[in-house]
Backbone:
């Protein structure tokens, strides 16, 4: 809970981007610090122990499984955003209340924050909508939650939207260097331009080779089946 790496990266301080001493390119001033404070690695655990999180949080069927291991480290500032003592400090009306018995509006508020794409969020949103028909205050709170979720979802730009519908700036320049990371132009020193939907990593190249081999195997299997079928037909004619 007091991990220095976690506390540093949860602040999202960025790289402190600024001009280099030569004034010809950009330089991240926090880079030396980030060399020593490494981000935590979250390798999958083979046998994570079930925890005591309430049943209304998503489990294995969601992107983040909050019901095994330590759920508070799976998201930034989890101690204040997930059910428990930290959340109750921010909401004193819940002090002493079992997280399983939180009011539905608090369950919805937590789910909208940590799991807005889950079926649990949609379930409690519908439940609160039913309860808010004759409750103006609850309806206002529900509208605020729904609007926050909408803003979060709209802030995520999908590949198709970015490539085909987002505004495009056209620039021209002289190629200074080209590589797997992208290209640099002499007119824009320090800036790397990357190709959309083009993978040049080892994993991407391996996947392409494996895909070609799979196609060759499938083609060979189809050819062998056709040959066996032809041989069977010829034997029948004989």
Residues:
């Amino acid at each position: 809970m007091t991990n220095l790496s976690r506390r540093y990266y949860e602040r999202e301080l960025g790289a402190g981007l600024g001009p280099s001493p030569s004034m010809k390119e950009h330089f991240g001033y926090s880079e030396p610090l980030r060399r020593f404070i490494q981000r935590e690695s979250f390798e999958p655990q083979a046998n994570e122990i079930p925890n005591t999180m309430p049943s209304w949080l998503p489990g294995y069927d969601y992107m983040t499984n909050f019901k095994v291991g330590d759920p508070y480290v799976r998201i930034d500032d989890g101690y204040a955003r997930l059910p428990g003592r930290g959340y109750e400090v921010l909401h004193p009306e819940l002090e002493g209340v079992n997280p399983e018995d939180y009011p539905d509006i608090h369950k919805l508020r937590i789910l909208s924050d940590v799991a807005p794409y889950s079926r649990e969020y949609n379930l409690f949103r519908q439940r609160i909508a039913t309860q808010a028909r004759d409750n103006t205050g609850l309806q206002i709170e529900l509208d605020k939650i729904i609007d926050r979720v909408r803003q979060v979802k709209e802030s995520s730009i999908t590949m198709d939207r970015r490539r085909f519908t987002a505004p495009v700036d056209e620039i021209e320049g002289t190629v200074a260097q080209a590589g797997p990371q992208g290209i640099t132009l002499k007119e824009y020193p320090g800036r790397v331009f990357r190709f959309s939907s083009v993978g040049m990593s080892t994993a991407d190249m391996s996947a392409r080779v494996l895909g070609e081999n799979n196609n060759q195997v499938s083609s060979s299997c189809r050819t062998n089946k056709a040959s066996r079928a032809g041989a069977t037909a010829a034997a029948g004619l004989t």
In short: Confidence is low (pLDDT under 50) at residues 231-238.
